[in-house]
Amino acid sequence: MFRASPRNLSTALLGLLLLVGASGCFRAVRAWELRGEMLDHELRDRSFPVAPAEGLARIGAIASLSRTVCRDDAGCSACTRETCFALEPSDAGTRVVPDQRLSEESARTLWQPLDAESLTQDSRGLDERVEAALLAEEARFVPRFGLTFGAFIGIGPEAGVGLRLGVRRWHEMHVLSSLVAEYEYLGTDLRQAALLGRLELSRWSEFSAHALGAPSASVGLVVGATGMFGPVPFTPGFRAGFDLHLNEYTGGLAIPFFIELAETTTWSGATPRLGARFEVGFGL
Q: What is the reported pTM?
């Protein structure tokens, strides 16, 4: 019989509390990105009332500048710790041309010494513009499906290797759910299958659009039924826990991976067998 133990329920409750606590994190990350995008765009569109040489001297007075990493063919004036940029003459003075999209901190580093007053004026309504842009993005979002799949190693109560395949559904820009089937080989002809539901928090991004609907990163609550079979009679069970997916922000690993921590219950007659489970794998 597939039924949860009190420990499964308490683990699921803990996972739900973690989701509630993390509910604003992914939206805050997008807001941070938008702040940088807006300041970057406004910095590029503005002409500053200084000559290029004077502007470079002003920036150099507050930031450590270097030309050692400049590419000569890129028209680079200098590089801060975060980015390289050029100062180009314009009808009203000088334009800043970074070689990449700037973060908020980098944009302020270049803008402040050139015209602190205009930066102060531009920053006054920045929070309102960011919030309006977020609301507009969320209103435009269309729910859609995606795929999830991977290979994993499971440890506890038995160790094994397995595969998973499932479907994701994005309900809104920051909330999605998944239905996942797992098949795991535990050795000595023992197998385990699981049908799991996941509720995840993340955010839809350009990465998601090109990666079968996979989130850049997500945290989620996992619950579902399990069954062990093979040389022993079929043994039903239940699993509850939480997981972490890192698909884009993987550091030097460069391979999407996921980690799951769960509490499992298997039933042999009326006697439950409890245990912790750790799962790590690669895939979207």
A: 0.79
